Batch of 3 targets.
Target 1
Amino acid sequence: MKKFGVGVLTGVASTIAAAATAAVTFHKIAVKPITDEEAKFEDTERKAARKAAQSHGNRF
């Protein structure tokens, strides 16, 4: 019976570790590139707005 308990605990620990690894991998592969792309887009938009305001501003 002792080996059964150790086996169950090992299985539970392995399952939790696998789920955590899957979550971290998903975040690195799917979520982070989208977040980086959005940040780059916002930065580009900010720069473009600044240039547009400066070039079309008042000339007097």
Target 2
Amino acid sequence: MGTINLGIQIVPKSRKKDSYELVDRAIAVIAASGVKYEVNPFETVMEGPEEHLLAIAKKAQEAVVEAGAEEVLVYYRMHIRPGQDVRMDDKTNPHR
């Protein structure tokens, strides 16, 4: 399979930690992965091979737990085109 888009929204719950700080931990994992990504107000979208993106997503949610989240809600959205790559730029450049 080729390149897909994976949107991930991580919603940490904690009585002691700031939720934005916890989300920043997840974004740091994604940024360090080297994949193309874009942070949006409600989710972060990554571009790459599906299995690789799912592994990054798993590490991101684990980082939030390790940083002190007591509970984590994780939402995924994937855009897949069998036999074709899905590129963020193809979808967003016409609107910029």
Target 3
Amino acid sequence: MKAKFTAARREHPEFGCRTGAMATMWEGYFIYCRDDPCTRMLTDLGFTFPDPLDAVTGNTYGRSISVERADLLDSEVLVWLLDHPASDTKKLHDGTVYDRQRTVKQGREVLVDQSSDYGNAISFVSPLSLPYVLDRLVPQLAAAVDGDPTTAVPAA
């Protein structure tokens, strides 16, 4: 498995100079902490967990923040695990504080249907699910951080 992460970092050195986080919509916005397996998957790919989110989540599994504090989510890539992708995406982009962040304006979101096979595989973060996840997540992350806001992040 280490070889797959190493290959992804080698193919995408741009990941090494970017911040990234995982979130879901629960009691506002729930941020997975830096030590959560989902977040560690991003850091194993080279991303750095944003300091403002680290200060909020601390050593917990994660923490919810209010929608008014969406400015904390302004990282260089944000992976959303969504229970109801269509309605949750509408809520995220319906004139909220989050909708005004650079993450949104520059197309740096990765939206994942948590109930799909892909979403379940991300949540499990097991040795068996990681190859499946990386085959889908790495191209999405690459599109999200390519510096071109018109690039559409591919659906997985």
